[in-house]
Structures are given as C-alpha cells and as structure tokens.
Design brief:
This is DUF2304 domain-containing protein. It comes from Mycolicibacterium komossense. It contains 4 helices and no strands. With 115 residues, the protein is mostly helical. It has one domain. Helix 2 crosses helix 3 and helix 3 crosses helix 4. The longest helix is centred in the last third of the chain and has 41 residues. The radius of gyration is 24 Å and the shape is elongated. The chain starts with a helix and ends in a 10-residue tail after the last helix. The model has no long low-confidence stretch (mean pLDDT 80).
Length: 115
C-alpha cells in the first residue's frame, strides 16, 4: 500500500466516524448511515484493488474503472445536492411557520385611541 492509498482510506474512515457520531434524527438517518458504511467498504476495496473496478466496469459495459467511479460519483453528487435542497426548503417553510406563530402570539389588537 502506498501513501496515497493510506491517506484516502484514513480520510474515508474519518468521514465515517463523523457521520456515525451525528445524533440528529437517528431513525431517519439509519438507512443513510448503512448506505454510507457500505460505500466506505466499497471505497476502501476500490482503493486497495483498483484493477477490480475495471473488471466491474467491463461487466457493465464501461471501458475503464475510473469512468465507472466518475459516473457513480456524479449520481451521488446529484442525489446529495437534491437532498440538501429539499431539506433546506423544508427548513425554510418551518421557519416561516414559526415566525408567523410568534408574530400572531405577540400581536395586540388595535386600540381605539390610535385613531
């Protein structure tokens, strides 16, 4: 194993630890965490045995393993971007509803003296 393989594996493991330690909404993130753990194993395998990715790519009709990895990363990027966009849109809606509730809670009826 050369130094770049070690660095790549270490960075993937650091990301895995970070993801597994996140505590927000554990039930809905369980499948994401399982998927990420599978991704980590696949990434480590691809780093240690890069020629095997070419074999898998050839099975799928792609010329090189690097091209197959690029296609997979493009799909992952699009999924992550869309997921983040939808999550932020949901948070924006929740903040708007909260702001309305706070505004209505603190609202005062107009007094007759103001006229």
């Amino acid at each position: 194993m050369n130094w770049i393989q070690g660095l790549l594996i270490l960075s993937i493991l650091v990301l895995l630890v970070y993801l597994l330690r996140s505590r927000t909404n554990a039930k809905s993130k369980a499948w994401v965490k399982v998927g990420y753990v599978l991704f980590v194993f696949a990434a480590i395998y691809a780093i240690l045995r890069p020629d095997d990715t070419t074999v898998v790519a050839n099975w799928l009709g792609v010329a090189r393993g690097a091209d197959l990895m690029e296609y997979a990363l493009i799909i992952a990027f699009v999924f992550t971007t869309l997921s983040t966009y939808l999550r932020f849109k949901d948070l924006e809606l929740k903040y708007a509803r909260l702001a309305r509730a706070v505004a209505l809670d603190g609202a005062q009826a107009p007094s007759d003296q103001a006229r």
